[in-house]
Amino acid sequence: MKHITPLFAVLTLALATTVVWAQDPVKVDAKHYKVEFENAQVRVLRIHYGPKEKSVMHSHPAGVAVFLTEGKFKFTLPAPGGKTQDMTVKAGEARFIAAEAHLPENTGDKAFELILVELKAPAAAAAPAKAPTKAQPK
């Protein structure tokens, strides 16, 4: 029987990481993630977690989160390391969220809800606005 080469092991790990990164939360955790709106530029998710509820590993592109309620939660990041990040937010707070894979968990005793606007593609450079033209006198 042949031994696994180090290159094969690295490629297998890279493929596994890509698969984890590609997990869509709406598909792998429909209990917590609902699509409210979607077009070619954005996807808007409503996210709701009950007290102490936990998700599965998934990923999001960069976006803006608007927290509808206060909340305390923990994100576990994918291997290697599986580091965790704790976060506390206030109702009405908005934050830019960088693209990442994570496993979220509501560590609070209350349900929390947020709206996440995921960016699908880099925003097109806006054309400079033209100054309004003055009406010519008759």
Describe the structure.
This protein has 138 residues and is mainly beta. The protein has a domain at 24-119: Jelly Rolls. Helices cover 14% and strands 38% of the residues. The protein contains 2 helices and 9 strands; from the N terminus they run H-H-E-E-E-E-E-E-E-E-E. It has helices at 6-21, 25-28; strands at 33-38, 42-49, 58-60, 63-67, 71-76, 84-89, 94-97, 100-106, 112-119. Strands 1-2-9-4-7 form a 5-stranded antiparallel beta sheet, with no helix packed on it. It is globular. Mean pLDDT is 83; it is low at 7-20 and 125-129.
Question: Which secondary structure elements does this structure contain, and how are they paired or packed?
Answer:
Layout lengths: L5 H16 L3 H4 L4 E6 L3 E8 L8 E3 L2 E5 L3 E6 L7 E6 L4 E4 L2 E7 L5 E8 L19
Antiparallel strand pairs: 1-2, 2-9, 3-8, 4-7, 4-9, 5-6, 5-8
CATH topology of the domain at 24-119: Jelly Rolls
The overall average pLDDT, rounded, is 83
Characterize the overall form.
globular
CATH homologous superfamily caption of the domain at 24-119: Jelly Rolls
Annotation field: number of helices:
2
The fraction of residues assigned to DSSP E strands is 35-45%
What is the percent of helical residues?
A: 10-25%
* Low-confidence blocks of residues: 7-20, 125-129
- Note the gap between the termini: 93 Å
CATH class of the domain at 24-119: Mainly Beta
Order of helices and strands: HHEEEEEEEEE
